[in-house]
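User: structure tokens for this one?
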Amino acid sequence: MDAGIRRLVDISETPVAMRMRAELILERAGWAAQVFQRYDRATTQSIADAAARAAHARARDYAERVVRETGFGVVEHKVQKNELSSLPFVDYYRDWNFVDPRVDPETGLLEIPRPAGVVFALVPSTNPIATVYFKVLSALLTRNAVVISPHPAAHETCVDATRTLADAAVAAGAPEGAVQVLEEVSLPLVNEFMRSEKTDVILATGGTPMVRAAYASSNPAIGVGPGNAPVYVDASADLRAAAARIVDSKSFDNSVLCTNESVLITLESVAKALERELVRAGAHICDEGQTEALRRYLFHERGFNVEALGRDAAWIAAQAGFKVSPKTRILVTPIRLIGVGEDLSREKLCPVLGLFVARSHAQALMQARGLLRYAGAGHSAAVHSTDEQAIIDFAAAVEVYRVVVNAPCSQGAAGFGTGLAPTFTVGTGFFGRSSVGENVGPQHLVNWTRIAWPEDAGRRTEGGGVPRLRHRGPLPRAPSDGVPGEGREAVAPAPRPGSGPGGLSREALREQIREIVAAELRDLLKDGG
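Assistant:
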């Protein structure tokens, strides 16, 4: 949307103006989605590949820019996240077929893919560019249109990154309007998008209030809950390796991933040796005074102190009133309690790790369960052990849907370096009051129509193979001087100078706005009567 049109639709902050703005963007996305759903698999894959290449090429640039814009995080670590969320992400799903019909050989069911349509995607400040990459590429792989809603703290970089992917996708043949981004963001405007009937699914990654709002919108929503991962190191573990992995994970991007370890639980028999290995790996073990200073600094009556979000360990220590070596990677705070009454057992998106020493294996499991029930149910946990039965017992006890074994939890639970699917939206399932318990991916943006025959009749399609769907390929574009054609089976061309979305002239757009306003006024008068 060009500056002139943006000014035209943003003449005030009234609900009518915001609704019009949302409807115009969603209308364009809807046109694009209907065209995109006619593309074949090869074309769809080539579009996703082109966008992934463009994303990978700008991974460092956007990492540097977003750290400057937000003021937190580690550039090198954000580069890694951005790169992993581009070409490797598309490669992971290369052999998945979200486009062609398929046949279940056991039941004879014929299944036809049905993309969601228009995806409204919320992006957090903690992993903004990686999340933009992940959500745009997930939409492109499944022939959906996506509208990105950036977090205000990372807005400028997210807008540019989304445009980069959109340009690459369109150049490779994607319908114009398949990838869009909100150039101006406000909570009321976001709510308009979430409530609109033109939004087919909300993909929500962000704070709990925003995710809950997505679920309350009346539209289908895929959201996540807060993380608060326990990590258990038992007596059989390789303590040096475990300590190195935990420090690597907790310091990764200054601990902004919600999959990072929150509280380390270990046993009395190995606690001192483990502390020595943590120090060797770059941790600072806090004394009682330093622990109390961090408790006061990190938490207040409104919750976590966001000033500490993604800051490095030395900076946080200085703000709390004590000094540590500039090379310190994480701060470890010994605690005697987990749950209500101990703020340091809550989620901490910064390199501060609680340490609880249990008297027995049974108490360690109980405390891990308690931590998750206090916060983080359904999310993630980690265990370091060489005892397979102990690992299985731990995984069965904790109420989470991913348990990382002998690996960094930050990266491992997000599917990097483990067998889990790569993601930047972690489903928390029934435990976490979420609709999805898996690592969210493009497969969650497609449903399947299943065609069933009587069991004794067999398949009725010719030859019993997989039939081709008709009407493949792009449909004609919408007329440049009008609205989409019959059935709305067309896509709006890119706005020309002096025109609105879909090629509407300014006068036609003004007339459309006047009609919307008049209709709303009629409804208000009717309700008032």
